[in-house]
Amino acid sequence: MERFNLQRRVKMNENRSESLDRRRNDDGQGTGMRPSENNVTEDQEPFMGVKVRRKTSFHREFNGDYIDVRSNQYLMKLLQKQGDKEVLFADKVLKFTSSGKMKRRILMITDFAIYIVDPEADALKRRIALAAVEKMCLSELSDNFFAIVIPTEYDLLMASTRKTEIVTVLVEAAKRASDYELEVCFSNSFEYNAGAELVKEVQFEEVEGGVKTRILRK
């Protein structure tokens, strides 16, 4: 196996892979899954309630790989098996399940696909080809939510303090992979398919000090 690029992107082998009022610094660093009084873990709190995005976050440099993919044997084997050659983004995010639960997952974006991986079980949950993605939905406010719409499957609703980077990377990757411009829709209320015949609506409200987010079943 060839040596991996130490910079922003990881080069692969050519042979062929939901209201809370607590706040946290928007430094993008991962935290432990410590229970809180509302049964919401510390790293989930900034996504679900009032969240103020620091101005500096808009000027943050994009690093791409925040989990050191090349040091993770499972991820490397997975990518090599699938034939992906380049990791454009990798980080831990919160994914919202159809039942409304929040799960910590690894989000990886490569030159071919989007990967959702369970970091505790080292299990691939979903692999979505970039060509299958129709659009992304975001609010017009400074929150951390984004939805990835996949017409042939159910959609993804996730949250990350690195939302801006994720959107940028996905748009660029889709254009390179399929030569089309991925649509990015901004609205303070949007719907997504959380599962088979299950549609949910995400509502965003600007309140004093930040943004309040609600997820409703339609």
UniProtKB/TrEMBL annotation:
GO MF annotation: an example: cytoskeletal motor activity
Annotated region (Disordered), positions in chain: 1-46
Protein name: TH1 domain-containing protein
Source species, domain of life: Eukaryota
GO cellular component: myosin complex
InterPro entries (UniProt xref): Myosin_TH1
Organism encoding this protein: Rubus argutus (Southern blackberry)
Residue ranges of every copy of the TH1 domain listed in the record: 51-218
Compositionally biased residues, Basic and acidic residues: 1-27
